[in-house]
Each structure stands twice: as structure tokens, then as C-alpha cells.
Design a protein that fits this description.
By secondary structure, this protein is α/β, with parallel strands linked by helices. The chain contains 8 helices and 7 strands, in the order E-H-E-H-E-H-E-H-E-H-E-H-H-H-E. The chain binds nicotinamide-adenine-dinucleotide.
Length: about 260
């Protein structure tokens, strides 16, 4: 039996990309997987059916819009009432907008700060009390290389991700010695819809084809010249939930093809 078999794990933004890869990885451990994120009824049913068919994990979906603190509160209360208290919280949902600061739309700033930073605060404040009571819990914040360094035209995203790194350290300090850890994972480029959109935008601006734009995109930041795989992030989350990681807390873990080594 996997040590994660009896654990309930909530992964925000898990109907796509990195979050979905994390959900699959925990489902393979037969954890109880609680999905969150957007999608049509059919898309979400397909994800739940696939995960349930391939594993014997119980899989649930709560579609709260993470821009809304009340919707987050309602989701957390429903999960508590319908499934029980969460053992592992993986804050992952995130969005991006790329534009110079002087024209950066104020509504985009507000949306990115709400989803990429404030939602991490709201889910954590609702989840961490029962983790402390039980004497075991894991909070994993999917931040970004942009939690460690900046890039032009990403003011809201970089500000939010640096905020997540700070929040991670504070939660680690407040939960120290109580069996609860809080760590941040900082991926470089992972080829998900979030990055695919940026490559397409770059290709259009620089009149390159998709392959040329991808090559330049990687060469600019990743000395490894390859994408990080969503599965690599998922495996790091799994490790952070293992006994071997019980003394890792407040750690800010780069998986970035060498981006931050420069
Ligand atoms: P993605 O676009 O594939 O998935 C985003 C998920 O968030 C989806 O499930 C979507 O439905 C959900 N979501 C978006 N807005 C939401 C809202 N208001 N309420 C609820 N759910 C919402 O993105 P991804 O690339 O897998 O990114 C996941 C996380 O990883 C993000 O925090 C992102 O910043 C971070 N990250 C990604 C990369 C990368 O290269 N892809 C690199 C570093 C960090």
C-alpha cells in the first residue's frame, strides 16, 4: 500500500497542463484526488473517467472560480463536509498576460493577482488548521522561475509568483514542528496551453514558424535547450509528500533547465 493511499489531495487548476499531470500522479498512488479548474461538463467527465479507469483512486471535481474568495470558501467547506479534511494542498492554478506595464490592463493585473497569489492564500488559510490538528499535512505551491527572477512584460505574473515564494516561507514558519510542511516548486518552461499561447504570440510577432519560435524561446532561458516535463513537476510533488521530505519546509525548488543558474 502506498503511503499516500489514504491521503486526500486537492490540486487547483488541475483540468489542464501541470495540474492534470499532478492529479494523474497522485491517482496512481490511489490517493483521493480532488480536482479544480475550468472545462465543459464533458471535458471534466472525461478527465474523471480516465483517472478512475486507470487507477482505483476516488476522483472528485469542484469548479470554484478562484478569482472569487467566497467561491473558494464555499469549495473548501463543501470538500470538508463531503469528503473530509484535505491532507495535501497543491496550489497550482495560474494564468498569464504579457504586455508592457504602461498599457497592462488593470483587470488583467487584478485577475492574475487573484488567481496566481490570493487564491493560494485563501485555500491555505482554510486547509492548514486541520493539517495542524492532525499533525500531518503538505502544502505545495507551484510558483515559477518568475518567483525568483523577472522578465519584461510580465509585471503581474512576476509580482504574484514572488508573492507566492514569500507566502510559502511564512506558512513554513507558522507550521514548523507540527508535521506540516510548505514548499514552493519553481518550474521553467513546461509546454502547456499557458506556454503554447506565448510561443504562438512570439511566432506571430517575429514572423517565425512555430518550431523557430520554440527554439528561440528555449535558447533564451533554458541552457538545457529542452522543456521541463509536467511529469517532472508531478514527481517533485510526490517526493515532497514522502517521509524523506519531512524535514524540507520553506524550500524554494527550481526545476528550470538551468534558467536561474545564469
Ligand atoms: P494551464 O493553462 O495548462 O492550466 C491552468 C489551469 O488553471 C487550468 O486547469 C484552468 O482551468 C485553471 N484555471 C485558470 N483560471 C482559473 C480560475 N479562475 N479558477 C479556477 N481554475 C482556473 O497552465 P499550466 O501551464 O499547467 O500552469 C499551471 C501552473 O504552473 C501555473 O501556476 C503556472 O503559473 C505555473 N507555471 C507554468 C509554467 C509553464 O511553463 N507552463 C512555468 C512555470 C510555472
Amino acid at each position: 500500500m502506498s503511503e499516500l493511499e489514504s491521503k486526500k489531495v486537492l490540486i487547483t487548476g488541475s483540468t489542464s497542463g501541470i495540474g492534470l499531470a499532478i492529479a494523474k500522479t497522485f491517482a496512481k498512488q490511489n490517493s483521493t484526488v480532488i480536482l479544480n479548474g475550468f472545462g465543459t461538463i464533458d471535458e471534466i467527465k472525461t478527465i474523471i473517467d480516465d483517472l478512475s479507469r486507470q487507477t482505483s483512486a476516488k476522483v472528485f471535481h469542484y469548479g470554484a472560480d478562484l478569482t472569487d474568495p467566497l467561491a473558494i470558501e464555499e469549495m473548501m467547506k463543501k470538500i470538508q463536509a463531503e469528503i473530509g479534511s484535505i491532507d495535501i494542498l497543491i496550489n497550482n492554478a495560474g494564468v498569464q498576460h504579457v504586455e508592457a506595464i504602461e498599457t497592462f490592463p488593470v483587470n488583467k493585473w487584478d485577475q492574475i493577482i487573484a488567481i496566481n497569489l490570493s487564491a493560494y492564500f485563501h485555500t491555505t488559510r482554510h486547509a492548514v488548521g486541520s493539517m495542524k490538528e492532525k499533525g500531518w499535512g503538505r502544502v505545495i505551491n507551484i510558483a515559477s522561475t518568475h518567483g525568483l527572477v523577472g522578465s519584461p512584460y510580465k509585471s503581474a505574473y512576476v509580482a504574484a509568483k514572488h508573492g507566492v515564494v514569500g507566502l510559502t516561507k511564512v506558512v513554513a514558519l507558522e507550521t514548523g514542528g507540527l508535521g506540516v510542511t510548505c514548499n514552493a516548486v519553481c518550474p521553467g518552461w513546461v509546454l502547456t496551453p499557458l506556454v503554447d499561447a506565448q510561443i504562438k504570440e512570439k511566432a506571430e510577432h517575429s514572423k517565425q514558424n512555430y518550431e523557430e519560435a520554440t527554439r528561440d524561446f528555449l535558447a533564451e532561458k533554458h541552457p538545457s535547450l529542452a522543456f521541463v516535463e509536467a511529469e517532472h513537476i508531478a514527481q517533485m510533488c510526490l517526493f515532497l509528500c514522502s517521509d524523506a521530505a519531512s524535514q524540507m519546509t520553506g524550500s524554494i525548488l527550481a526545476i528550470d533547465g538551468g534558467w536561474t543558474a545564469r
